[in-house]
Amino acid sequence: MNTKTLKQQIEIPSIAIKVHERIRWSDLDAAGILYFGNYVRLFEIGETELFRAAGHPYSNKQFDELGIWMLRVQFNCTFLSSGYIDDLLSIYVWISHIGGASLDIQFAICRDSVMLGHGICTIVSTNRQTQKAVKIPETLRNGLKPFISEHGIL
Q1: Which domains does the chain carry?
Q2: What is the C-alpha to C-alpha distance for residues 129 and 29, in angstroms, rounded to an integer?
Q3: Is 120:105 a contact under the CB 8 Å cutoff?
Q4: 3-state DSSP assignment of residue 47
Q5: Residues 121 and 47: beta-carbon distance below 8 Å
Q6: Regarding predicted confidence, which is higher, 146 or 150?
Q7: In what order do the strands lie in the sheet with 102-111?
Q8: How far apart are CA 7 and CA 142, in angstroms?
Q9: pLDDT tens digits, residue range 21-64?
Q10: Checking DSSP bridges between strand 114-127 and strand 68-79, what pairing results, if any?
Q11: CB burial class (10 A; 0-12, 13-18, 19+) of residue 73?
């Protein structure tokens, strides 16, 4: 694996959802930098706003009506630079692939023009009782279509 490739920034597509969040004391590790585990929290903030923009806010009622759970099955993040207390971050999220039962959501975390990290999360639509993969409902798929871009694929 070429580590130079892993350290490169990715292109953020114009259709990406953008959300702002500040780094808090509780986000820091002992070295005073953004703790790596908090990238998952930042991704979740962006993911939530992506689904809201697609007309499907994350709520139990919403997914009760669809009859599904959206389970995360893989998460990958490449760290490029450190974040510090009170930094104002921009969280960008978009869909790089949507299949029959799964989708890949990409994200990038930036401070001004500096990309701190980027990654991808694979989410699978599952039956609520069996947790077996099922086709993504058409209403959800149609809502997500405007946010699909192949730019920046990892």
Answers
A1: 15-147 (3.10.129.10)
A2: 38
A3: yes
A4: helix
A5: yes
A6: 146
A7: 17-22, 88-98, 102-111, 114-127, 68-79
A8: 34
A9: 999 999 999 999 999 999 999 999 999 999 999 998 887 677 78
A10: antiparallel
A11: exposed
Element (H, E) at 29: none
Residue with tokens 């689904």: 51
Q: Is 4 helix (H, G, I), strand (E, B) or coil?
A: helix
- Six token digits for residue 119: 């990654």
Pairwise CA distance, residues 103 & 141, whole Å: 10
Interior CA angle at 60 toward 59 and 62, to 5°?
Answer: 65
In the numeric block, the tokens 């959300």 are attached to 19
Indicate the SS3 state at residue 88: strand
DSSP letter for each residue of 55-69: T--S-HHHHHHHTEE
